[in-house]
């Protein structure tokens, strides 16, 4: 086992919430609906803007999922109309009237569970109320089994230009474990047809390290992504969440899964090595490898570099002009006012999601003292082989990308501790 595997007790497998880290030192302030809606009538600032639309419904629940979703048990007509009405409502504000949006992202759940006429209702409302930037990105997360040509026709008619398909793995064994529809051969054929029909980027999610997954299986996943010339592949290590079907199955069988760090590391390295072979793909973000002329993933770039994410739909969360917004249900939202520290260190955490961290970007948001502590910690990680310092940037090594979420979390904790002596 490489020495870099012993640097942390546990690997953080997702982007750690920077606000929760900062809240240990500085509490965010409460905000309210009235002040938020007054703010939306003011002249919008110049920061980049995205819209996140949440669909908390699926027609089939994956074994690993604990996200804000439930299985459909009736028509989605009323929910589709609710989403359209939200766009009509906010479309009357100056924030919407005077802004260009870089990104619209439909997540879930599974946003392609809507019927074609329901998609038409939602997308027509967006067309009326949202001005998109010239080089916009418009994404729908989807599965293969509920995506039809009729739905795709409606989506393309309204400018959808990116699909994120939840594949998880092409391995037949893995697909059974994840409770996915179709076997490997059917998945490959459907992706080929989708690529031929859809006018835009086709991206996939890969989840590695299911029980007994072999190196051959994870390498095969990478090879198929490349053979199909998909625009990008997000790659995540399996997380067993409380509340997921998988966690309940494990509890029922009295099986305790402890993270096998060596296996996690080996699967990660083999997937990345295979994806980067031939130099046709590159690491775009800690958990995404993109085709050189493919996916730009503007959604995460806007979110992670200080832009707004306007949330619409039950379970949607985002931040607008420094105000955090979480839609608890159709009638109620929770609002919080971020402090200067929350805003700045959230941006720092966002910068740390990319393999190249530009020094000028960090210096723009940190004080001289804060940057001094940041650079101290980064140089410590350089001594451990996790990054290389250049004249104008810090560049994560492949091991550094593997540990990227830990590095981001530790950097924030270290700087805050130096500032507040805690």
From TrEMBL:
* Alphabetized PROSITE patterns for the sequence: RADICAL_SAM (PS51918)
Q: Name one GO cellular component term.
A: cytoplasm
Annotated Radical SAM core domain ranges read 43-277
Query: The organism sits in which domain of life?
Result: Bacteria
An example of a GO molecular function for this protein is: metal ion binding
- The keyword Repeat appears for this protein: no
- Keywords recorded for this protein, A-Z: Iron, Iron-sulfur, Metal-binding, S-adenosyl-L-methionine
Q: Which CDD domains match?
A: Radical_SAM
Gene3D superfamilies, per database record: Aldolase class I
> Can you supply a Gene Ontology BP term from the record?
porphyrin-containing compound biosynthetic process
**Pfam families per the UniProt record, alphabetical:** Radical_SAM (PF04055)
In terms of SUPFAM superfamilies, this protein maps to: Radical SAM enzymes
Q: What is the protein name stated in its UniProt record?
A: Radical SAM core domain-containing protein
